[in-house]
Amino acid sequence: MKEVNKGVTSQTLTQNNRRYDPDAIARYYRYRPWLAWARALVIIWNFTGFILGLKWDEWRNQVEQNKLKRAVQLRQMLTRLGPTFIKVGQALSTRPDLVRKDFLEELVKLQDQLPPFDNAIAYQLIETELGRSLQEIYSELSESPVAAASLGQVYRGRLHSGEEVAVKVQRPNLRPVLSLDLYLMRWAANWLSPWLPLNLGHDLSLIVDEFGIKLFEEIDYLNEGRNAEKFATNFRNDPRVKVPAIYWRYTSTRVLTLEWLNGFKLTDTKRVREAGLDPESIIEIGVTSGLQQLLEHGFFHADPHPGNLFAMPDGRMGYIDFGMMDQLDETTKETLVDALVHLINKDYNDLALDFVNLGFLTPDTDIRPIIPALEAVWGDAIGKNVGDFNFKTITDKFSELMYDYPFRVPAKFALIIRSLVTQEGIALSLNPQFKIVEVAYPYVARRLLTGESPQLRRRLLNVLFKDGKFQWQRLENMIAIARTDEDFDVLPTAKLGLQFLLSDEGKFLRRQLILALTEDDRLHTEEVQRLWNLVKDDLTPNRLFDVAIGVLAELSREGVAAILPSVNALTSFHSKTS
Q1: Phi, psi of 242 (to 5 degrees)
Q2: Where does residue 45 fall: left (phi above 0), alpha (psi -120 to 50 degrees), or beta otherwise?
Q3: What average pLDDT is seen over the chain?
Q4: In this structure, how many other beta carbons lie within 10 angstroms of the beta carbon of residue 313?
Q5: Close Cβ partners of 216 (under 8 Å, ≥ 6 residues apart)
């Protein structure tokens, strides 16, 4: 390994090349095949030995007897293979539903219990990068790292101004090592693609490239500092989320000085409970903030493993390590909301179109045979209740479709799926019965009902109207689900709804309501009673009557005759409740 690492430190792969360039890397190793083959043989030798060990245990009926030994062997193997494989192990460490318990307990150690590199090298790197001595920068600095991760290690220190800080120092010679592994992964992806079912491997090399781009961004600590500040700005009005401050005077490409956060690892359920914290509350903060990142801000943490998330003593969720982030555009965010709503409402025709818009299907794909397949595969998974399934169910069922239909995973969505899977894995470690949709759908329901943007209000219309008919059951379900959050208040939602209804933008909805009133499903007294049952805890009868008459007065501009039966129904209901 030392010889390989030494060989790749030529001018073409120096620390100054900050961006991932697969073509430049490929050109370099194309003329130095012995370096690639040496590394490939190391990887193949390690995995072959591990797999043969598992098979040997099966043949000798010693699986149970040797399971702890094999778990330690797996962790040690990934550690020996270096940062790229440690990243894979970190992702698996959050999936108790995919990895057996004995392996899981060892893989968790890859998050912050890796072998550190020499302190003298770390201290020298700090002084070189920051251009001054340690004594000039810090009044205190721990003699050894408090945590060692795949790409760097962290020291606990204090500035001369008194602030307690974490000092993150990058591992030496990191960029060449990553370059070689990514080159081999890309080669393997291109070789495997033709052997995979249909389009399952169509974009494997693009996924490797996306991973490479993010890895190279992650080892640029200036980029990480900018990401942290952007993330903090997005959550500046959320008192439940804490992001450490960055000390730019003591930060460079390979050294990062940031605010020290005290907290407990999310997987340490015992300490979380001993601190008087509710794991269910922590889960909700994590999942909701994750959805906010995807659906509101479009800027999301792509590596939320337990080593990067902390339950703080005051109940907040602390985020660290902002090296691996990604950005979604507005159209993608809106389409994700659409897809979740269509999935919950079992609108499989629209869901198939969402897959086209998100890039999972090409625009020229005939979606007609895919629609019944979506219904057949996911119909049972969803069941009658939105809480009957979790994200693993969805991904498992989706993987079945990829064998029979031309689905592909866009490179950007590989990170999104990894982020969601990781967050659900963390939640499962706190609560094995956790189902992500039980938190996700109330969040989406509240987002749609409050309608902060025109795009969300239009999506609410898509939910509440189907084939020109107003879907009362959907409105009831959304309000009921949204109100599972004790902080949700239907009154502001009603105000926003009325403002939208009376605006120019709400003209379409006014006309749709007129059509509903003039057809068979006009608003009769019993339907007023039905609506009243939804909001009676938040609105008095008099106030509801005043609001409804005001809306009907506005609607009268569209057609007086059409609304008379509904006015009579409201008047009758008001006289009974006053």
Answers
A1: -120, 130
A2: alpha
A3: 76
A4: 12
A5: 18, 19, 20, 175, 178
Residue 180, class by beta-carbon neighbours within 10 Å (0-12 exposed, 13-18 middle, 19+ buried)?
Answer: buried
Per the listing, tokens 């025709």 go with: 349
The listed range with the strongest mean pLDDT (490-494, 501-505, 536-540, 562-566) is 501-505
User: Can you spell out the DSSP letters for 411-440?
Assistant: HHHHHHHHHHHHHHHHHHHH-TT--HHHHH
Token pair 């219990």: residue: 113
The conformation of residue 237, written as its DSSP 8-state character, comes to: T
How far is the C-alpha of 4 from the C-alpha of 2, rounded, in Å? 5
Lowest pLDDT segment from 15-24, 316-325, 545-554: 545-554
pLDDT digits (tens, 9 = 90+) for 34-77: 999 999 999 999 999 999 999 999 899 988 888 889 999 999 99
3-state SS class at 373? helix
DSSP string, 240-284: TEE-PPB-GGG--SSEEEEE----EETT-HHHHHHTT--HHHHHH
Candidates 71, 86, 94; CA nearest to 265 is 94
Question: Is residue 303 annotated as part of the catalytic site, yes or no?
Answer: yes
Question: What's residue 392's pLDDT?
Answer: 63
Helix (H) or strand (E) holding 326: strand 325-327
Please, are residues 468 and 501 in contact by the beta-carbon 8 Å criterion?
no
444 contacts 502 by C-beta, under 8 angstroms: no
Q: Residue 244: how many CB atoms within 10 A of its CB?
A: 18
Tokens of 528: 């007023």
pTM of the model: 0.72
Closest C-alpha to 174, from 285, 82, 277, 242:
82
Strand partners, 345: none
**Residue 151, number of CB atoms within 10 A of its CB:** 21
With vertex at residue 533, the alpha carbon angle to CA 521 and CA 385, rounded to the nearest 5 degrees, is: 80
Q: Residues in the chain, how many?
A: 578
Q: Please, is 88 exposed, middle or buried when counting C-beta atoms within 10 Å of its C-beta (0-12, 13-18, 19+)?
A: middle
| Number of Cα atoms under 13 Å in the Cβ half of residue 56 | 9
Report residue 125 as tokens: 């790197």
Under a CB-based contact definition with an 8 Å cutoff, are residues 430 and 475 in contact?
A: no
The per-residue pLDDT for range 337-358, each reduced to its tens digit, is 788 778 767 788 888 899 898 8
**∠ CA 191-204-151, rounded to 5°:** 105
Q: What is the pLDDT of residue 103?
A: 86
410-431 per-position pLDDT tens digit: 767 767 777 777 777 778 777 7
Q: Report whether 204 contacts 191 (CB < 8 A).
A: no
Distances from the Cα of 176 to the Cαs of 16, 209, 278, 280, 457, in angstroms? 11, 16, 44, 42, 49
**Strand, coil or helix: 252:** coil
Quickly count: other Cβ atoms within 10 Å of residue 101's Cβ. Answer: 9
Q: Which of 181, 303, 326, 354 is catalytic?
A: 303
pLDDT confidence bin for 461, thresholds 50/70/90: low
